[in-house]
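Supplementary material to the annual report.
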Amino acid sequence: MIEVLSAGALATVQDLGRTGALNLGVGTSGAMDPLALAAGNILLRNEENAAALEIPLFPFRVRFTHSTVFAVTGADCAPRLDEAPVLPWWAHRADAGQVLSLAVPSTATWRASRVYLCIAGGIDVPSVLGSRSTQLRGAFGGLEGRPLRDGDRLPIAEPPGRAKTGFGITPPGLALPLEVDGLTAVRVLPAAEYDSFTPSSHEALWSEPWKITSQSDRYGYRLAGPELRPQRPMELRSHGIVPGVIQVPHGGQPIIQMRDAQPSGGYPKIGTVIDADLWRLGQAPIGSRIRFVLCSWDEALDASAATRRWLSNARRLVELYCNQGAVR
Amino acid sequence: MTNPLDHVDQLCAFLAATDIGLLELKGPAGVLRLRHDGARVEVEMIEAATAALSSSPTQIIRAPVPGLYLDRHPLRSQPSVAVGDEVAAGTPLAFLQIGPLLLPVPAPEDGMVVETFAEHGATVGYGAPLIGLQPHGSDAE
Amino acid sequence: MTTDLPQLSLLGTTALLFEAPGETSLTTQCRIWALALEAGRLPGVREAVPGMNNLMIAFAEPPRHRGQIEHRLIELWHALEPLPVAGRCLDLPVVYGGDGGPHMADVVAHTGLSVDDIVAIHSAPTYTVYALGSHPGYCYLGGMDQRIATPRRKVPVLRIPRGAVSIGGSQTGVSASDGPSGWNTIGSTEVAFFDVERTPPALLQPGDCIRFKTIRVLR
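Predicted assembly:
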């Protein structure tokens, strides 16, 4: 069990998301940075999909009621176990009663904002419609379908006892960088209404920085930048959408649908941030600026393959180290 | 220092995950040469020798595996330790990165950091000297 | 000529969008339901999700070459038999206007109709559930009279309550839970469209229908 002493705000239980319930109107949810979650689980020798805590606001503190192996991945939030600093992206053991404190992340080496507290065995909330992720809109999944509060107690699945401590994994964010003019960049495939926007809108989309406004959350990122204008007003019939879709409401300021996005919508779509780059957005802090990069179907699939390769290589080396790990 | 021959399979697997082409390993039992051509790793035993390890009051902490030497965690902008720092046994003084894997270079005992040998970001071989530590309570052998 | 053909477009690498040609109609929707059944069985497809006269194909694994599945969808579209509308009908009591219908004035302003006209027109038809989407249990309804069509809001509202009856473009619907929306809310009702403890969790499914019963009109 872990006990939440200071919940910050909007911290939730997430796994890699809920698939297959779109026909009920249920979106995918899941970690905003699925790579940090999967990497944390690999480090702890969990299933990649094991549930963890996603923490966007700080300070955040938990007490471990039992001896527990854990790792803090995502942004570097200067974790402390009781008073002692502990490394991020590192497998640690906490003794019963020890308190883990997470502070506001430093962005000195990596512009990231979300932290994942991964636990050997995983957070053991009930799986609902195939996932432990919190469905905020539907108020189910995760812990009672809501963000965490002070005093919450979270069950931990019996760890298989495989986890080893005292080593780490490098943040994939550093291994798979993508920047344009010093800003986080994400690759985009044009969507159905792309050609219906004006040439100056196309120009702006690809060449201007876009600010992530404070009205941004797990549902969507509202961006500020030049106005994007369709050649003529469009009213679309409601249709399925996915996380990453860049909608342009009548006001001309785009909204990128994120993990808690509804599974359907009707605003014109100028493009879609590719699945392989959604974690970059998931980590981009509010107030930061991003760039869009046009890409092709093949490039988008290659990007997904590169991510999968990184994860499977990490899994292979962690297993190798843990199985033969007499190295001292 | 442990004998590299004890770990030759693991070393080969680690080497395969890097872009290091040639690795020479010197240990008390001899010298090993591992060649990595991008696809497979060949192991060659070159000679048996009894290399006398220099003994000094300063304990030389050597690379337990070949890899990329990092004097700080990849998310940190300052080295983990500097010359003159007092460290406790078990504290990670530096790191060795093998692909996505990050292994600690721990202090074997309590002591003071007196020297650093490797450069941040350098590729180091098995047994390469990394950090000099003046142990507490055993200032001479 | 191209407007007679279905349109296919990308939703990133995770899904394809199939859009039927022509004006929105129940006849077309019956074909979308039939296509959803077939497309959901194609290899590499995780789920086929009907929208309003369109269908999203969510990939389990995106195909390296999309031509094959795109071609198959068009082929199926031309060959399939539409599914019949066969469902149950739900009566929903609605309070129009007032605090529960904060955007009634915007619909009045856009349409030039009176509140009474809007209520009469909105509560007259039997609406067919075309699709589920937006949020858990939410039903997209077909059959709204185009005289009360009102564009979606320029800036979406961050929170509209469960039970909100609203108009977005040429469509109407009822929110199944609290949340953000770009639609114009004209009234409110009370019904549990979704309960995860229930099997199936969603109250209605495509092919069912809804009738709005006016309880009161607040001004």
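Chains B and C do not touch (no CB pair under 8 Å).
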